[in-house]
Design goal:
single chain; alpha/beta; twelve-stranded mixed sheet; ten-stranded mixed sheet; 33 helices; globular
Length: about 900
């Protein structure tokens, strides 16, 4: 639909959200301004602030500015891609294909403009389109979002809703464009430009470098490794417009279709599935590969693992392309000598180093696979994906082929579609045997499947248990299910059947978390969701049941079944009694209090529901509202939450707005030890209904200072995707609760810098023990930045810590977290605090000199990788290179540097209000 030559979404500045409330407001504004005026197209464009540019080509730009050819056109032949598991419905994978990438040119150009996140650079008011760009096969991100209309028929591009034009007086090189904040696109389309220009003789120090303002720290680190200084960077916000007098223009080093036309409408799914939709110039890839591998010595490379499995970390709400049996696949690969890694937790140079010796790389389809750029030329890359013809099977293959690596696909069963039914992003399950077959095909001999014989044995026990259950011998069946779970605690079927027995015998507090384990192991199986919802309703957890019905439909619960379940208990909703009536006989001193240092208001409703649905009575709940404008308090006051809030004893106090530690200490001061136990619950974390019951039970079994339960890592919706790793001495213990002393705790945490314990949200403290947090010091050495693990270590010096071997909650990964902001004082303190903890531990005699040195070496590597350019970290870098960690000179030099780094408002304010200044 157009108005003259302009799309209606541009002239109304609506972003294409036709019919929405925001669209209506903009439409009315448009009518009020222009309803009675007869304007030409150009007048309308100017009045509505639509920026128009000519479309131009690479060839025209080369001719206009006498561009120099950097690389010639290159032709290479793709591999025929072996497929294992499910057959591929795309017939093209069976054949090799000849591809050609155009030459690469560079030129000094005047009058240069950039639109943040947009695809086309603009030279003298002309948008330069990539060589293979056509509207029929290639949609830019700005088109999909409604900011842009590309009219090749009249050779014009129009942009609406752009930020104010910013004029700069400097020469630039632009690394801005579609997908620039995606790791895969960054490695193949943007970062190599710096190496190409540097190798072509360009003095990069004379230019400012344009990068997306949302770039991740690892991306900026990659630039620093190539000699770019922090002060050279200009951060460009999405869809802001910037003008520069001069720039170096480099023609595309890759022609990659960012998204297909009308992708948001679910049409044309096969447009991006052809071999030529992702083409890279091999010379550019080789240039980047050589530049980065030269940063790592051959000796260090030789020590890296040869077999790597990449875990697919999920930080987005949709959880797309999820390998649902990832844990089982990892266990199988580990048994065959693979090392499981999460590249998102590593710095850039750590990723380069880790993959530099890899002979085999196995991963679910995702950006982290592009770390194969650092692997040897004869490496084998095996990609797991759902069985769809619509994915681009050559996105990774066209990188592997020029390098000399092989690519293999293992296709799994499609489970359900995400992103509005887009099968490209469906979740899937991989057949372990198909993976083993693929590894053998690629030359890995003597592969083993240790789970096969074990699974056969467990299946025999499981079959016998089901037989006994059907015969009515519940006691024998229960015993047999426990035998299965002793070997495989997350066994879906055993957990489900045992939970059914526990439900029938009115042990809902045990059944509910067991149903949750079954669902986490196999979310696609509908009966697990049905049984879980039934148990929640029997327990009176109505709100949790309703939420489960919503979440379940994203996985294995059909809409029809969900409607039937809802109809069965809708009559109960009106008369549901309060779920958390205290059973303590009206004792004056509640046994438990919950302290919530609140900042992120978006998750407050879920937090309140989780507190209201606890099987153990919640006591006083104190919420310190640290949100910028009281958003947390506003959410709690929402009438829609009144039926939840009225069940809880909530006190809201204003937060100090100085930082997280300050807010926690502020809560502790207000609480004044008004209960025997206290739980510090962060606003975005997740509690399961039996959390408090299990923790209180642990505190009644033995005199401990704190109890810690297992926790899942979850996506933004709260769906588990990974489990926390615990030491073998805990995992292999027969006890449901392990009571651990300081020797084991210090030895398992400090030397490896591994906080396997978790954080405050999965811990319940005694009133006395938690007071140690106010000062956060051991041996008078502060451990700010690692307050959670530091506090638990300090507590263990005076009392044991109970480890509950049950998953009672989740650590929610979400976009509002700041845990990888390398420039923040908290992140810097959180890194160096490991050295502080190690020094205190060494002085206490809890770790050896060798273990102290091990800790410092680990942190030295992290500091060198992350903070090489930070002025406030130079003293630590020098210290690590000059003094032995167990020497007096090391401590004497470290402590003043540490005190200087600690001088942030959060730490200082917390010390002040905690009366330990």
């Amino acid at each position: 639909m157009t108005l003259g030559t302009w799309h209606i979404q541009l002239t109304h500045q609506s972003g294409g959200a036709f019919g929405s409330e925001s669209w209506q407001k903009l439409y009315q504004r448009y009518l009020e301004k222009w309803q009675e005026q007869d304007l030409t197209d150009s007048d309308v464009a100017e009045a509505l602030d639509i920026h128009t540019f000519e479309l131009s080509t690479v060839d025209a730009t080369v001719a206009a500015f006498k561009a120099r050819q950097v690389f010639p056109a290159v032709e290479y032949t793709t591999q025929a891609i072996p497929i294992f598991g499910k057959p591929s419905p795309n017939p093209l994978v069976k054949s090799a294909h000849i591809l050609q990438h155009p030459p690469v040119y560079m030129a000094e150009v005047p009058d240069f403009k950039v639109i943040g996140s947009a695809a086309f650079p603009i030279v003298q008011e002309k948008c330069i389109q990539p060589q293979y760009f056509t509207p029929e096969t290639w949609e830019t991100a700005e088109q999909g979002l409604g900011y842009c209309s590309v009219r090749t028929d009249i050779n014009l591009v129009g942009y609406a809703n752009l930020g104010e034009l910013v004029d700069h007086d400097c020469k630039v090189i632009s690394l801005v464009g579609n997908g620039a904040i995606n790791y895969a696109h960054w490695l193949t389309e943007f970062l190599p430009q710096i190496v190409v220009l540097k190798n072509a003789g360009v003095d990069l120090s004379q230019y400012q470098i344009l990068v997306d303002a949302q770039s991740y720290p690892s991306q900026l680190e990659s630039l620093y490794l190539l000699g770019i200084k922090r002060e050279q960077l200009i951060l460009v916000e999405p869809f802001s417009l910037h003008h520069f007098p001069q720039a170096i223009w480099l023609s595309p080093i890759a022609n990659v279709v960012f998204q297909r036309p009308k992708a948001s409408h679910g049409v044309g799914k096969d447009i991006t599935s052809a071999p030529d939709r992702a083409i890279y110039h091999p010379h550019a890839l080789f240039a980047l590969r050589e530049a980065m591998l030269n940063k790592v010595s051959a000796e260090i490379r030789a020590k890296q693992p040869e077999k790597i499995f990449i875990r697919r970390t999920r930080t987005n709400a949709i959880n797309a392309r999820m390998l649902v049996n990832e844990q089982a696949i990892e266990e199988l690969l580990v048994a065959n000598g693979f090392v499981g890694v999460d590249p998102s937790a590593l710095s850039f140079i750590e990723q380069v180093t880790l993959f530099s010796n890899a002979q085999y790389i196995v991963a679910a389809s995702g950006a982290a696979i592009l770390n194969m750029l650092w692997a040897p030329a004869n490496a084998h890359v095996l990609v797991m994906m759902n069985d769809t013809r619509y994915a681009n099977y050559w996105y990774f293959g066209n990188v592997a082929t020029p390098i000399g690596q092989t690519l293999t696909y293992i296709l799994g069963e499609t489970l359900e579609a995400q992103l509005g039914g887009d099968i490209v992003h469906s979740n899937f399950r991989i057949d372990p045997q198909a993976l083993l077959d693929a590894l053998q095909y690629r030359g890995l001999t003597y592969v083993v499947n240790p789970a096969q014989s074990l699974d056969d044995a467990l299946q025999e026990v499981l079959d016998l248990a089901i037989e006994q259950q059907n015969a009515g011998d519940l006691a024998m069946a229960e015993q047999l299910y426990h035998e299965v779970l002793a070997v495989q605690p997350n066994h879906a079927e055993a957990n489900h059947h045992l939970a059914v027995i526990e439900t029938h015998t009115e042990r809902l507090a045990e059944a509910i978390p067991r149903f949750e384990l079954a669902i986490a192991a196999n979310p696609a199986y509908e009966q697990y969701w049905v049984s879980y919802v039934d148990a929640l309703m029997l327990a009176g957890n109505v709100d949790k049941a309703v939420k489960t019905l919503e979440i379940g439909q994203q996985f294995g619960l059909s809409a029809n079944t969900a409607q039937q379940l809802a109809a069965e208990f809708v009559a109960q909703l009106e008369g549901q009694p309060p779920q958390n009536v205290a059973s303590s006989g009206g004792q004056a001193k509640p046994i438990l209090a919950t302290l919530v240092p609140a900042y992120k208001h978006a998750f407050i409703p879920q937090l309140l529901v989780s507190l209201a649905t606890q099987s153990y009575p919640t006591g006083q709940i104190i919420i310190s509202d640290d949100s910028p404008n009281g958003e947390v308090s506003q959410v709690i006051a929402d009438p829609a939450l009144a039926h939840i809030v009225e069940k809880l004893d909530i006190t809201i106090i204003p937060g100090p707005k100085q930082g997280t530690m300050s807010n926690v200490v502020h809560l502790l001061e207000h609480w004044q030890q008004a209960s025997q136990l206290v739980h510090i619950l962060f606003d975005d974390d997740i509690l399961y209904p039996t959390f408090y019951a299990e923790h209180v039970k642990a505190h009644t079994q033995e005199a401990i200072g704190a109890s810690v339960s297992y926790r899942w890592f979850t996506n933004e919706l709260g769906q588990p995707y990974a489990a926390s790793t615990v030491p073998a001495f805990v995992q292999h213990s027969d006890n449901q609760v392990n009571f651990i002393g300081s020797d084991q705790l210090f030895a398992s945490v400090v030397p490896t810098c591994d906080n396997w314990l978790g954080e405050f949200s999965n811990t319940v403290f005694t009133a006395d023990a938690v007071q140690l947090y106010k000062r956060s010091r051991m041996e008078d050495i502060a451990y700010y930045g690692l307050g959670d693990v530091g506090l638990l270590l300090e507590i263990s010096l005076y009392a044991k810590v109970g480890i509950i071997k049950n998953y009672l909650g989740g650590f929610r990964q979400n976009a509002q977290q700041n845990t990888v902001n390398y420039d923040s004082p908290v992140f810097k303190c959180g890194t160096v605090a490991w050295v502080a903890l190690a020094l205190a531990s060494y002085k206490l005699g809890k770790i050896s000199a060798q273990q102290l040195q091990q800790t410092v070496q680990l942190i030295q590597g992290a500091v060198n990788a992350r903070f090489q350019q930070s002025a406030d970290m130079q003293g630590f870098i020098k210290l690590f290179n000059t003094h032995a960690p167990d020497s007096a000179a090391f401590e004497q030099t470290f402590l003043p540097l540490w005190q200087q780094l600690l001088a942030c408002k959060d730490w200082l304010h917390a010390q002040q209000i905690g009366q330990f200044a």
